[in-house]
Design brief:
The complex is a heterodimer. Chain A has seven helices and no strands. Chain A is mostly helical. Chain A is 83% helix and 0% strand. The relative contact order of chain A is 0.18. Chain A has one domain (26-195): Four Helix Bundle (Hemerythrin (Met), subunit A) (Up-down Bundle). In chain A, α1 runs antiparallel to α6. Chain B is mostly helical. Chain B has two domains: 10-60; 64-94. The radius of gyration of chain B is 18 Å and the shape is flat. The chains are: A mainly alpha, B mainly alpha. Chains A and B meet through α1, α3 and α7 of A and α1, α2 and α3 of B.
Chain lengths: 198, 94
């Protein structure tokens, strides 16, 4: 097969897609900023009800999974295929753990009636309703990205395993890793804005 | 050889960036527990931006990408910043 490939162009295409993701989440952060300016006290009260331990744990998980996928790419480029596969497995595992934590966290919020339309949230100030609405939309959309990223990396893991993504042609892993780093980047902003308000 | 991909970053470089990210996470949690008033949100955003730069430059290899790509990212961030800035021009002076 003599298909011409240009890895730089492939990465540029991936980055252009990531910019559109940036603006998608940017819109949600913009909403957050406007309503934080309008209801500062309610946002602080809302943020206090989020689980700091789970939030910090998930931050560490995502940062570490970003490391393992970056290491996986380096390992593949150095021709260490088995190490690359192991590191990709670790990344997928971390992403699943992240989702389990998120599920535990959401479950607790639902149990306490802290969801849009929930009994307890209906009684609180309008600012807290906005806070929890934005919390569920933003972390939900982010969680969806975690799920997609995990599926993407699992697929690429198969491609590396079957020798279709190699040291000579790693662009698929490069782009998959870029997507995963974006998921990490967005969480880096979600974490302080939602969990660390005081 | 594959002449289009950038050189592999060393494991040592990547782990150092990871360690820095963890330290910065610790710092942002610590700073958020102090009552600094309006400064809290700016400290949180500043540290998050620093962490994001580390991820973009090293994990995402932007440091070794061609100038065109860096320019594209700059324009994307400028677009986002102007959206936020112009919205606040409206919201703050209503």
């Amino acid at each position: 097969m003599t298909m011409q490939r240009d890895a730089t162009a492939a990465r540029l295409g991936m980055w252009l897609f990531l910019f559109s993701e940036l603006l998608l989440f940017g819109g949600l952060f913009l909403l957050y900023a406007v309503y934080l300016a309008r209801y500062p006290a309610d946002f602080v009260a809302g943020g206090r009800q989020l689980d700091l331990l789970l939030g910090t744990g998930n931050t560490i998980l995502l940062i570490t999974s970003s490391l393992t996928v970056a290491l996986a790419l380096s390992a593949l480029q150095q021709g260490r295929r088995r190490l690359c596969l192991g590191l990709l497995c670790a990344t997928v595992l971390a992403s699943l753990l992240f989702l389990v934590n998120k599920g535990v966290e959401w479950q607790a919020k639902f149990d306490h009636g802290l969801f849009p339309g929930g009994a307890r949230l209906e009684e609180t100030a309008p600012g807290q309703k906005v806070f929890f609405g934005l919390y569920f939309v933003t972390t939900g959309l982010h969680g969806l990205h975690v799920l997609i990223g995990a599926a993407l990396l699992l697929w690429i893991l198969g491609l590396v395993g079957s020798g279709r993504v190699t040291e000579q042609d790693p662009v698929m892993l490069e782009n998959g890793a870029l997507y995963w780093h974006l998921v990490d980047l967005i969480w880096i902003f979600i974490f302080p804005l939602y969990y660390l308000l005081l | 050889m594959n002449r289009y991909s950038h050189p592999a970053l060393s494991f040592r470089c990547l782990t150092t960036v990871w360690a820095l990210l963890l330290v910065l996470t610790g710092i942002t949690v610590f700073v958020s527990r102090l009552d600094l008033g309006a400064l809290n949100i700016w400290a949180a955003l500043g540290i998050a931006t620093l962490k994001a730069s580390l991820v973009v430059l090293y994990f995402m290899h932007l440091k070794h990408e061609p100038r065109l790509l860096k320019l594209c990212l700059f324009i994307a961030l400028l677009t986002l910043a102007s959206f936020i800035g112009l919205t606040f021009f409206d919201v703050l002076y209503r």
